[in-house]
Specification:
With 82 residues, the protein is an all-alpha fold. Helix content is 72%, strand content 0%. α1 runs antiparallel to α2. It is flat. The N and C termini lie far apart (61 Å).
Length: 82
């Protein structure tokens, strides 16, 4: 008998696994069109994961998170000249 654990597809762990899997798939794919599609999926999953990680950090360390946000607002932003 094998033990299988169901994973909520919207959980932080599921998104971490998806990003990892898509990243590995991207490196192995040789078809250019498929690589493009995988890269788009990876970008979407990575963006969503980053937001989820920020929310988790905020929940666990709310006061430190707010201090980091305030400190980031005070630092001068570099100008990118074209």
């Amino acid at each position: 008998m094998t033990h299988t654990q169901k994973l909520d597809p919207n959980s932080l762990k599921a998104y971490r696994l998806r990003v990892r899997s898509l990243s590995q798939e991207l490196w192995l794919e040789v078809n250019q069109l498929r690589r493009m599609n995988i890269a788009l999926q990876l970008a979407d999953a990575s963006t969503h994961l980053a937001r989820m990680e920020a929310e988790e950090l905020q929940k666990q360390h709310e006061s430190e998170f707010n201090q980091l946000l305030q400190a980031g607002k005070k630092e001068p932003q570099p100008h990118l000249c074209g």
